[in-house]
Amino acid sequence: MKRVLGWVSGVLLALVMTFWCVTATADLALSAGIYGTPGTYKVEDCYDTDDSRKNSDYACHGDFTPDGGTADDAVYVRLTDTGHDYPDGSTFDARQGIEPDTIQRAGFWGVVGELWQVAISIAVLAVLAYQAIKPHGEAAQRREAHRREPSRRQKVADGFGSVVVIAGAVAILSWIAMLVEPRP
Q1: pLDDT in tens, 146-168
Q2: How many CB atoms lie under 10 A from the CB of residue 165?
Q3: Which of 183, 171, 181 minimizes the C-alpha distance to 117?
Q4: 113: exposed, middle or buried (C-beta count within 10 Å: 0-12, 13-18, 19+)?
Q5: What distance lies between CA 145 and its chain's CA centroid?
Q6: How is the beta sheet containing 37-48 ordered, strand by strand?
Q7: Nearest by Cα to 161 from 120, 130, 122, 134
Q8: What span, in angstroms and rounded, lies between the C-alpha atoms of 3 and 18?
Q9: Which residues touch 5 (CB under 8 Å, ≥6 apart)?
Q10: For residue 148, what are the contacts with CB-CB under 8 A and spacing of at least 6?
Q11: pLDDT tens digits, residue range 58-95?
Q12: Distance separating the N- and C-terminal Cα atoms of the chain
């Protein structure tokens, strides 16, 4: 029963992490300029949506104007979970996705802001793969200990272990970079 519960929990977590990875990767691609319409976002106002004021979570209202566009081309967009309290009237480079209300900050800081999410989701998926692939039980560990070389299964599991370390390091470094990001 314990083993079945572990597999079911792992599959559910893998589905959630896969969804997060796909959506974060799409946001990362938009921030990196791989697709979407380039333009400028002008902040009308930002406010903290967390009433307790302990965990600030900002939402902003403003207009996205495509490059080469005029004020008539501007699209009113509400940004949620920005992580920034942008000053009223400030502008930043942005990209508009396929949906008109999908806006991501463009450039280096936009990519850094999305990179940690992709890295964390990949790290969690790699941990799940490692747990599923590595040899289990005492008998398997004794067989591994007596071999001159690790089994193919152990080598693959170790590869996923390396992915965990690399993705974790990327996530931590991008998170640190977000902390030192210059504020507008």
Answers
A1: 777 877 888 888 899 899 999 99
A2: 11
A3: 171
A4: buried
A5: 38
A6: 75-79, 58-66, 37-48, 91-96, 103-105
A7: 130
A8: 22
A9: none
A10: none
A11: 788 889 999 888 777 888 888 766 667 778 888 889 99
A12: 54
13-63 per-position pLDDT tens digit: 999 999 999 999 999 999 999 999 999 988 888 887 777 766 677 788 889
Quick check: 183 pLDDT over 70?
no
Rounded Cα distance, 132 and 85, in Å? 43
Rama region for 137: left / alpha / beta (φ>0; ψ in -120 to 50; rest): left
Written in H, E and C, the secondary structure of the chain is CHHHHHHHHHHHHHHHHHHHHHHHHHHHHHHHCCCCEEEEEEEEEEEECCCCCCCCCEEEEEEEEECCCCHHHCEEEEECCCCCCCCCCCEEEEEECCCCCCEEECCHHHHHHHHHHHHHHHHHHHHHHHHHHCCCHHHHHHHHHHCCCCCHHHHHHHHHHHHHHHHHHHHHHHHHHHHCCCCC
Whole-angstrom Cα distance, residue 67 to residue 95?
10
Q: Which amino acid is at 25?
A: T
The pLDDT value given to residue 139: 64
